[in-house]
Amino acid sequence: MGCIKVFKVPRCFFEEFAAGSPQHGFGRTARKRIEQAFGWVKTIGDLRKLPVVGLATVRAWATWNFAAYNLIRIGGIGGWWNPSPT
User: What span, in angstroms and rounded, lies between the C-alpha atoms of 51 and 48?
Assistant: First the structure.
């Protein structure tokens, strides 16, 4: 990746500095886990186009979907079943 000079400091300095730290790897895995959950809820949990209206029902719908995702994820971690790769 090329560096862009902004205010006489190369922009890629932080990227090179952060990529070597162990926290950067943790942040990447945490972000992947969060994005995977939201992707699952949007596609399988039907959160992309909600069939309900109102803040309370939308909140309940989202909570229900994330609870279902967590049950599937925990079941895969515990070895109870092999969850789908979605």
Answer: 10
Question: Out of 3-17, 30-44, 61-75, which region has the weakest mean confidence (pLDDT)?
Answer: 3-17
**Which residue reads 């945490």 in tokens?**
30
Domain membership of residue 85 (yes or no) is no
End-to-end alpha-carbon separation of the chain, Å?
30
The answer to whether position 3 is within a domain reads: no
pLDDT tens for each residue of 19-54: 666 666 677 788 888 888 888 888 888 888 888 899
CB 5 within 8 A of CB 12: no
Q: How far, CA to CA in Å, does 32 sit from each of 49, 58, 78?
A: 23, 24, 20
Average pLDDT over residues 57-77: 88
Q: How many domains does the chain have?
A: 1
| Domain with 15 in it | 9-78
